[in-house]
Amino acid sequence: MKIYSRKEKEQFVSKTAERRFNRQMKYRIRALTYLGGKCFACGTTKVSRLTFHHINPLEKEYEISNLYKSSWGRLQSELDKCVLLCRTCHEKEHGKRLSSIIL
Q1: Domain range annotation of the chain
Q2: For the segment 39-59, what is each residue's pLDDT rounded down to a tens digit?
């Protein structure tokens, strides 16, 4: 068994983290494209503002962000239950649901 130096270990961890981040970004871009690349409600295309919104929360099995390490097929089946909403529209949508539960 090889014993790694601190520097070698840090480089390995750094490369692993970089690969993980790159895979997550690749899947995020693919997922955004799959769902049309713009907010379903207002049409904004600013990628940093777009979020995944489950249309029916009862059908939600996973958080999209937790599926970036899964296969594309598994991620795609969860995306089929979602629409893209910008953060503002997403907050409004959840505000409507909360008010309907309270009232």
Answers
A1: 6-102
A2: 999 999 999 999 999 999 899
